[in-house]
Specification:
The complex is a heterodimer of chains A (415) and B (587).
Chain A lengths: L1 H19 L12 H13 L2 H5 L12 E4 L2 E4 L16 H10 L14 H4 L4 H11 L23 H9 L13 H11 L5 H4 L17 E3 L2 E3 L15 H10 L10 H8 L6 H11 L16 H14 L1 H4 L25 H9 L1 E2 L11 E2 L8 H13 L10 H14 L2
Antiparallel strand pairs in A: 1-2, 3-4, 5-6
Chain B lengths: L2 E2 L3 E6 L3 H12 L4 E4 L7 H4 L8 H6 L12 E4 L7 E2 L33 H9 L17 H15 L7 E2 L2 E2 L23 H12 L5 E2 L9 E2 L5 E2 L21 H4 L1 H4 L5 E4 L3 E7 L6 E7 L5 E11 L3 H10 L23 E8 L14 E4 L18 E6 L19 H11 L3 E8 L8 E9 L5 E6 L4 H20 L4 E5 L42 E3 L14 H19 L10
Parallel strand pairs in B: 1-14, 2-3, 2-14, 3-11, 4-20, 14-22
Antiparallel strand pairs in B: 4-5, 6-7, 8-16, 9-10, 12-13, 13-14, 15-18, 15-21, 16-17, 17-18, 19-20
């Protein structure tokens, strides 16, 4: 019974959304408890807090700097404050923002807000999200002005961007695949917006859809391939490995670091095992595209120097053979993250340190110290090259210049 | 004028090991808990991380992690006819300062006391007669038994992830463990640490001498371990920098590696650093604590009201605070009245250095990596032929091979110059040392009180320590040293060198940080400061933690018993006191 009504409402809302641009809907009746709870879950799945809560700021009041290659965009206040938040937004208005990237006033939103993914979210889910956001404590906080160069300040240009890159449309299932696969595809390509980091982007900041999940840059980290390659993808991972990683922040193959640690902490640890299994099922089916990674081969000198740095600074935790310590420190040997196409994440971790995400199941938050003061650029380059090529690992080498670049980027971001 | 702050349910004086356990357990019971720590905050990363240098000069020689005598110290004398003088440098013992307390810089030597230790007076009188106890020896039963404490010893073992081999599980003697230990309900959470070569030689020699060697229980994890609070510890790397250093590998049990990860996330817990508690405040009846006063780093004084006050400072600091706060009757050794400051005790140690022809690689060590015999601890042997009470373990520890302080040189080696260098070079890799770790009984003339002359930076009288070794302790320690020499000889060394503890107690050279007593626990308010639940007899909403409650000291390192007593006390607070606040023991 409930289900019938729910689907009926979903259809109605879909229709309403199309009308929303012109006529606001009359105020909805109060959403029920179950809708709010569902919205809470979906807001976690969408990791909305990650961008919409500033460090030390009030929850969902925005103001967090989201660095992009084009400049800094500040997230907006999505608490129900009527003047500075989204208190006046209707469900249809929220649906239009998520579906088409257009705000209540009709302005285009920058795609730092991941509407190219959220467009896949069903109207029913948007309704639940709206219901939940309406229960947040209203915070009066005016949105910060973005730091973008002209002409990017002109939002009208985004109409062209959308025309070229936005594929609007609610998720359409694949009847040839299983229900978990479809659920996983919906979460990964919709609220999860995994491709925002794990897929390469073009000059305009749009993802290269023909390179889906083959790895890409997110902030100052390289988000590794999620495709099935054994060396630098998820080929060696089982669905259970993926579930454990997303639920707890680590498994016996890897630990989340950098932006992914936040994703686990704020988002995926809260997903049900069924949903995580669905995500795993879908990801295990992501095809590898194109040729294998080829980079500069590691030179002997760099390997020798790297081995020495490794012995001095890394063996205490990651052990002699790079095998790590089960349940404690992640292995480097055979690790896809270590052998990723681009070494940015590893350089970032060596320079800045890392913390295993704190989750309900793994509350410890073991930390790796930073080495930015202890190792110079050549030493970092050598040790990163070494761990990418020791013990049967194979990946491109790293130069001192690469490390210097990362130091610069991290300084700019304030890491 | 102290600024009055908002009341909390529980205020903890100090934020070391006992405070961390209490905070974790009492917040679980729904209370709002605040810890006031005189030192700073420290955590595994960044403070002890593998990127920091384990600098022996900074930490071991210059006391990087210890309390600063400029801020807090005590005066000392050997006997009541002497004038005590203030300690301007730490020496014989090294109390910590800062979050995690001494459990940051300890070795991890994790022992349980023997069942007989808790009933030492009644047991001794029963077995050897009343006259066996010298008149001036003031030893007394604890008011708790080993059986009472066993579940709490167990909990502390599983908090710390102790590595060891059980010797007695539910009365069944286990091969390879300590056959003299009290029955434990189950084995240790982790197997013993990997062995160092010197401990292998010790084991062989001890067996040849007819003793029963076993691996020492270690709060250094022999394998990855997830503890009772779900906190993950890593496997020890045998770096040899435990004692006086913080662990960078999440391997040595400290609040940082066992409790902080869950405790510090709780909204109901908070701590303030650089806050020195100077008084426990009482209401007009003098029977209820209203909170504490403390001074922060800016010199501002605050009054922190609380429903329950628990002193978790280092042993003698708890006693100092009780004396300054005029809680309980101060001990008077002349009139033999009062209790606060009474029954101070310590530890008596000695060593036998062993010089071999084989390479021993002493630098691969861990704070509690050792092999011991317990044949001569407590009352594990018949004392009737001897004129002393007590005993101790004899152990060979491979704690590390630090270049400045951790080496042995044969007798007759020059103190400096080319001869010294040559001897060091020849012996660094080829020497080890067998330690004896003896009990110290309590005496009428060993005590703590307020110094009549010297004051601290807050204008309060310093604590005065009056202590010396007695004949009983020297006789016992010499007996242990002789037994250690028997083992040393059986190791077939090039030479060995017994170093008995001689003469008066000296507070200058480092011995152990195992100070006990001054706020003894017991069944009788005339001879104890706290009851069997560590609750003040005089002020029922005040509890005292740590080794200050030991009525005398046993032949073991105290931390295992401190942890067990803390869990025992917090259980009583949670399950008895909170339901019916008031005295938990009626007399």
């Amino acid at each position: 019974m409930y289900r019938t009504i729910f689907i009926g409402m979903t259809g109605l809302l879909g229709f309403a959304a199309m009308a929303a641009a012109t006529t606001p809907l009359p105020t909805q009746s109060q959403p029920g408890h179950s809708a709010i709870q569902r919205g809470l879950y979906l807001v976690k799945a969408g990791d909305c807090a990650a961008c919409h809560t500033a460090d030390g700021g009030k929850p969902f009041a925005g103001g967090r700097a989201v660095p992009t290659p084009f400049g800094v965009i500040y997230s907006t206040n999505i608490t129900p404050d009527k003047d500075t938040g989204i208190g006046k937004w209707t469900e249809a208005g929220l649906y239009r923002a998520m579906h088409s990237g257009i705000d209540r006033q009709g302005n285009h939103l920058y795609p730092a807000f991941p509407y190219p993914w959220y467009t896949k979210v069903t109207p029913g889910d948007v309704r639940a999200i709206h219901a939940y956001l309406g229960t947040l404590t209203a915070v009066r906080q005016v949105d910060r002005k973005n730091k973008l160069p002209w002409p990017l300040t002109m939002r009208s240009g985004l109409a062209v961007w959308n025309k070229m890159y936005l594929k609007q449309g609610t998720f359409a299932g694949n009847a040839n695949k299983s229900a978990p696969w479809n659920r996983g595809a919906y979460l990964v390509n919709g609220l999860g917006h995994c491709g925002a980091c794990h897929t390469k982007k073009n000059f305009a900041g749009a993802v290269k859809t023909d390179q889906a999940f083959q790895g890409g840059m997110g902030e100052n980290a390289f988000a590794p391939s999620l495709a099935g390659d054994m060396r630098d993808g998820l080929g060696g991972w089982t669905v259970a490995d993926i579930v454990e990683y997303l639920k707890t922040g680590s498994n016996d193959k890897s630990s989340a670091a950098g932006p992914m640690a936040e994703v686990v902490h704020d988002s995926t640890q809260y997903l049900t095992d069924a949903d995580l299994t669905a995500i795993g099922t879908y990801l295990k089916d992501v095809p590898r595209i194109g040729s294998k990674a080829n980079g500069n081969e590691a030179g002997n000198n760099q390997m020798t120097q790297g081995a020495a740095v490794y012995a001095d600074d890394c063996t205490g935790c990651h052990m002699d053979g790079g095998q790590g310590m089960a349940h404690v420190f992640p292995p480097l040997k055979g690790s896809a993250a270590i052998q990723a196409k681009k070494p940015d994440t590893i350089i970032n971790v060596v320079l800045g340190g890392a913390a295993i995400p704190v989750t309900t199941t793994k509350p410890t938050g073991l930390k790796m110290p930073n080495f930015h003061d202890k190792l110079d650029n050549a030493q970092v380059a050598a040790v990163v090259t070494y761990i990418r090529n020791a013990w049967g690992n194979r990946a491109s080498s790293v130069s001192a210049g690469d490390v210097a670049d990362m130091r610069k980027q991290m300084r700019q971001k304030g890491d | 004028m102290a600024t009055r702050l908002k009341e909390v349910d529980v205020v903890l004086v100090g934020f070391g090991l006992t405070a961390s356990i209490l905070a974790q357990e009492l917040t679980d019971a729904g209370l709002q808990v605040l810890a006031l720590e005189r030192g700073g905050f420290r955590d595994t990363v960044p403070d002890f991380s593998t990127t920091t240098i384990q600098d022996e000069l900074k930490y071991a020689v210059r006391h990087g992690l210890f309390e600063e005598p400029e801020r807090e110290t005590l005066t000392f004398r050997n006997s009541m006819d002497q004038c005590a003088l203030p300690m301007r440098h730490l020496g014989s013992f090294l109390p910590a300062s800062g979050a995690g307390g001494a459990a940051v810089h300890w070795n991890g030597q994790h022992w349980r006391f023997l069942p007989d230790d808790f009933v030492i007076r009644s047991h001794t009188e029963q077995r050897y007669g009343k006259k066996f106890i010298p008149e001036n020896m003031t030893i007394q039963d604890w008011g708790v038994t080993y059986a009472d404490l066993e579940p709490y010893y167990d909990k502390f073992d599983y908090l710390n992830g102790v590595s060891g081999q059980a010797g007695n599980i539910q009365g069944v003697i286990q091969q390879g463990g300590n056959p003299f230990e009290g029955a434990r309900q189950r084995g240790y959470p982790n197997p013993p640490l990997k062995r160092s070569y010197p401990t292998v030689l010790f084991e062989k020699a001890a067996k040849e001498a007819g003793f029963k060697p076993f691996p020492c229980p270690a709060s250094n994890t022999s394998r990855p371990y997830k503890n009772i609070y779900g906190v993950q510890m890593g496997e020890c790397t045998y770096c040899g920098f435990c004692e006086w250093f913080g662990c960078g590998n999440y391997s040595k049990a400290s609040p940082q590696t066992t409790i902080f990860p869950v405790l510090l996330k709780k909204d109901s817990f908070s701590y303030r650093t650089q806050c020195e508690v100077t008084r426990i405040n009482l209401d007009s009846t003098g029977k209820r604590a209203t909170g504490v006063n403390y001074v922060d780093a800016q010199g501002r004084e605050f009054e922190q009201p609380a429903q329950i006050v628990i002193t978790c400072a280092f042993a003698q600091h708890n006693v100092h605070l009780l004396l300054l706060s005029k809680i309980g009757k101060p001990y008077d050794p002349v009139a033999n009245t009062g209790v606060v400051g009474r029954n101070y005790a310590y530890q008596i140690t000695s060593a036998v250095d062993v010089f071999l022809d084989e390479i021993l690689n002493p630098f691969m060590g861990a704070g509690a990596l050792g092999q011991a015999i317990d044949d001569f601890n407590g009352d594990n042997f018949d004392h009737a032929p001897y004129d002393f009470i007590g005993g101790g373990y004899i152990a060979l520890w491979t704690t590390g091979g630090r270049p400045i302080l951790q080496h042995q040189l044969p007798e007759g080696t020059p103190k400096w110059g080319a001869g010294w260098k040559k001897a060091l070079q020849e012996n660094y890799l080829k020497s080890c040392s067998i330690a004896t770790h003896g009990s110290v009984m309590s005496y009428r003339d060993s005590y703590l009180d307020l110094d009549p002359t010297w004051k601290d930076i807050y204008g309060n009288p310093l604590l005065r320590l009056t202590f010396d070794y007695h004949k009983n302790e020297h006789d016992m320690s010499n007996f242990l040293t002789d037994k250690a020499a028997v083992i040393a000889k059986a190791m077939n060394p090039r030479s060995f060198h017994p170093k008995p503890r001689k003469g008066h107690y000296s507070i200058v050279p480092y011995q152990t940080t195992h100070n006990t007593g001054g706020a003894a626990m017991g069944d009788d308010p005339r001879t104890s400061v706290v009851n069997r639940y560590l609750q003040s007899w005089d002020v029922p909403n005040l509890f005292v933690m740590g080794s200050s409650v030991f009525p005398q000291n046993a032949g073991y390192n105290p931390t295992g018993t401190i942890g067990a007593l803390t869990y025992w006390a917090v259980d009583a607070i949670k399950n008895q006191y909170l339901k019916n606040p008031g005295p938990l023991v009626q007399v």
